[in-house]
Amino acid sequence: MSEPATLSSISPADVARVDDRPQWVEIHGGEVWWDEPRPHEGGRRCVVRRGPDGRTRDVLPPGWNARNRVIEYGGRSWRPTGDGEIVFTNWADQRIYRHSGRGTPVPLTPEGPHRYADLYLPPGRAEVWAVRETHDGTGREGVRRDLVAVPLRPGGEVRPILRAQHFLMNPRLSPDGRTLAWIGWDHPRMPWDGTELCVAPLGEDGTAGPYRVIAGGPEESVIQAEWRDPGNLYAITDPDGWWNVHLVGLDGDPPRNLAPLPLEFGDAPWKLGNTWFALAGDRLVAMYGTADGRHLGLLDPETGEITEIGGTATYWAPTIAADATRAVGVAASPYTPFEVTEVGLRDGARSVLSPGKRLPARALLPTPEAVTIEGVHAHVYPPRGAAAGRAPYVLFVHGGPTGVSPLTLDLEIAYFTSRGIGVADVNYGGSTGYGRAYRERLRDQWGVVDVRDCARVAAGLVASGRADASRIAIRGGSAGGWTALAALVHSDVFCGAVAHYAITDPESWAAETHDFESRYLDGLIGPLPATRGRYLARSPLLHAARASGPALLLHGLEDAIVDPAQAERFVRELDRHGTPWAYRTFPGEQHGWRREETIVAVLEAELAFYGLVFGVPTPGVPPLELNRPATPRG
Fold first, then answer.
1. pLDDT greater than 90 at residue 42
2. Is the dihedral of CA 102, 103, 104, 110 positive or negative?
3. Residue 598 backbone phi and psi in degrees, to 5
4. Which residue among 62, 523, 551, 577 is least crowded, i.e. fewest CB within 10 A of its CB?
5. Quick one: how far is CA 413 from the chain centroid?
6. Ramachandran region, residue 490 (left: φ > 0; alpha: ψ -120 to 50; beta: rest)
């Protein structure tokens, strides 16, 4: 390492306060609303509003947390109703509340085994619509979902509107109030595999009649739809292998691709309520591009022409709102964090609305480069002082695995690069952002293609003179943690691995995990029990004896997506086979880190681990003790 770690001024607390992002945005009258993370307030999400005077005010009182657990990843959790009031889902009890801005929020839904998400205010109705998820206490087999209407007045009766597919999202009422549209799918498909855009007449009693499918299917993924007029919807779908914007009519004619391009106008809907385009008069404000750069543009639906309006932002998060004069979204670049950004549609003027964040000096931030190595996409973040020669590198592996790592500022990455450790963020086969064909490279090949792609990127870093072949580690969270551990045991490339809330054994995870992902592995590895041999062959747990180096595992004790038992079983196997390991748990954390104190502890432990496996000093962080089993390896 050419520069000592003491020169870095990027602290774990800096990462905790900068690296998360606003999640949903809305234009409401003359105001812009959004919700933002509060790591220093126990990890809650607080809704805020910015008025024409430029002042930003909290909408929710302290302690209230606008999150929900529908499909465990959650979904759209709030909507402004008028006069500064809001309806929102509260994390503590998963009920819908209404808040006037004064006093204590008032519940609109009863206590019970219900969760609500994808909140939507149908025009002309004094109610909020939501996807309701009900758990009857019998495990994932007892989970069901329906679309319900909740009166905006306390004490009203929750009214069922529709029960159709096992999974529902994107409820929308036609402009004439007569037709309901939504997107649905069933096991074993995931929403990026195949979904159905459905419509049904809405009766006088407010319930939906018989429905029909107007777009999508088993091998076509519709991920957002909005009404253009009572007879047509705009929809993002991918019959040609790319998520493009289509015009879908109710008359049965084939959908028309408005801008047929080998670019993605959307990505995997891990949360219910994501939006990648919004109506702005007779045009659409839409995101488009690849994982190497997602732009914001104005799409003319008649000509297919796109006018870029996003400026220097290199990535827009999946939330967008617009009216006739402006668009608001959440944008980032390699040197700016995700911020609520307003764009004037007439003059192109751009301004940041969310409060500024204190950033490290520009000299401490890496300049990333998008590379393709043997067909594998990655973003390389060189370490500080990289010109001095080969450096230790860590391969970051995103979760999902149907996910993506954008080319943006990531202080978690900068925390390491500023200390002389390079990072390569790998968008392995299976990642979104490069079309369905690249996404489906992982079909039946999870634990093979992702591991091979990471090894190829590591080899490319060595061949280019960037990385020291003996000092390359790998890390990831959730499914990325699986890939990190699989690479540790199924290759000899990596000198160590860090796994955040990781899957370590696919067969047991398939039996233990929640309903939404309970059939995910059917497409990633194969259906059980017919393909059980693949599960056994690829399991990091069952092949821990082959580990090429030590491992650090980190897990939240309230994780409902990956049980901490996955980590516990893996470290026991490492111990049994004589491989050093460390394991840290965090009470109160779920699937992901939200509390500032957790983020600090996790980053310090990870840096200390790299100090051990790379043989470099890590001053300023608590030392990490690896458990060194008495049983020798071999």
1. no
2. negative
3. -70, -45
4. 62
5. 17
6. alpha
Long-range interactions of 257-264: CB distance < 8 A, separation 24+: 258/234, 258/299, 258/301, 258/304, 259/288, 259/299, 259/304, 259/306, 260/304, 261/288, 262/435, 263/288, 263/289, 263/290, 264/288, 264/289, 264/290, 264/294, 264/432, 264/433, 264/434, 264/435
Task: Please report which confidence band the pLDDT of residue 5 belongs to, taking 50, 70 and 90 as the band edges.
Answer: very low
Taking alpha carbons only, the member of 12, 6, 14 closest to residue 619 is: 6
H/E element holding 106? strand 106-107
Place of tokens 């007449």: 201
Range list of H helices, 440-564: 449-463, 479-490, 506-512, 520-524, 532-538
pLDDT, residue 387, reads 58
Q: Alpha-carbon distance 626 to 609, whole Å?
A: 8
Q: Is the pLDDT of residue 630 over 90?
A: no
What is the edge-to-edge ordering of all strands in the sheet holding 336-344?
315-322, 326-333, 336-344, 350-352
Mean pLDDT, to the nearest integer, of 245-271?
96
Q: Which residues contact 102 (CB under 8 A, 6 or more apart)?
A: none
Average pLDDT over the chain reads 94
Q: Look at residue 369 in the predicted model and tell me its pLDDT.
A: 95
Q: In terms of C-beta density within 10 A (0-12 exposed, 13-18 middle, 19 or more buried), how is residue 548 classed?
A: middle
Find the angle CA(252)-CA(257)-CA(262) to the nearest 5 degrees.
145
DSSP 535-602: HHHH-TGGGGGG-SS-EEEEEETT-SSS-THHHHHHHHHHHHTT--EEEEEETT--SS--SHHHHHHH
In the numeric block, which tokens belong to residue 118? 């994808």
Q: Tell me how far apart the alpha carbons of residues 10 and 157 are, in angstroms, rounded to a whole number.
A: 52
* Amino acid letter, residue 65: N
∠ Cα 442 447 453 (to 5°): 70
Question: Is the model's pLDDT at 577 over the cut of 60?
Answer: yes
Q: How far, in Å, CA of 144 to CA of 114, rounded?
A: 10
**Neighbour tally for 433: CB within 10 Å:** 24
Residue type, 326: R
Give me the phi and psi of 92, to 5 degrees please: -60, -40
Report in angstroms the alpha-carbon separations of 629 from 306, 540, 569. Answer: 60, 19, 15
* Tokens representing residue 545 in the block: 């004896």
Question: Do residues 286 and 297 make contact, with C-beta atoms less than 8 angstroms apart?
Answer: yes
pLDDT at 2: 32
- Contact (CB, 8 A) for 56 and 119: no
Cross-strand partners of 535: none
- 72 phi, psi to nearest 5 deg: 65, -25
**Euclidean distance between CA atoms 473 and 470, whole angstroms:** 9
In whole angstroms, what separates CA 251 from the centre of its chain? 35
6-20, 355-369, 487-501 — which one is most confidently predicted on average? Answer: 487-501
Nearest-angstrom CA–CA distance, 342 and 34: 12
Q: Which residues contact 620 (CB under 8 A, 6 or more apart)?
A: 5, 6
Judge whether residue 613 has pLDDT over 90: yes
Strands of 244-249's sheet in order across: 224-229, 232-237, 244-249, 256-257
Return the structure tokens found at 119. Answer: 């909140």
Half-sphere exposure of 8 (CA within 13 A, CB side): 30
pLDDT computed for residue 4 by the predictor = 36
